[in-house]
């Protein structure tokens, strides 16, 4: 037989200023757009480049056809570059959000 216990109410989150709410929206909008762009680049490298590889079979690099380098090294290097780009750009976005939070906090004093 279940015992009726009152639900514990969750504490209310602290109030957020309108400027901070705008900063959060801009932060997440930037994050989502950045992820979409980087995923589109990754998709084109994964699927677009192999579809076009037959056009580059005559191009030789160190005796090997260029599509070999696309598949063997190029895609991996692009994926690593996409990760590095995401990290660097999100650090800038984090710093911008922190500056907005500091400015909001300084304005509240």
UniProtKB/TrEMBL annotation:
It holds the Pfam family DUF4212. The keyword Transmembrane applies. It comes from the Bacteria. Residues 24-96 form the Sodium symporter small subunit domain. InterPro entries: Na_symporter_ssu. Keywords: Membrane, Transmembrane, Transmembrane helix. The keyword Glycosyltransferase does not apply. The chain crosses the membrane at residues 30-49, 69-89. This is Membrane protein. It comes from Caballeronia choica.
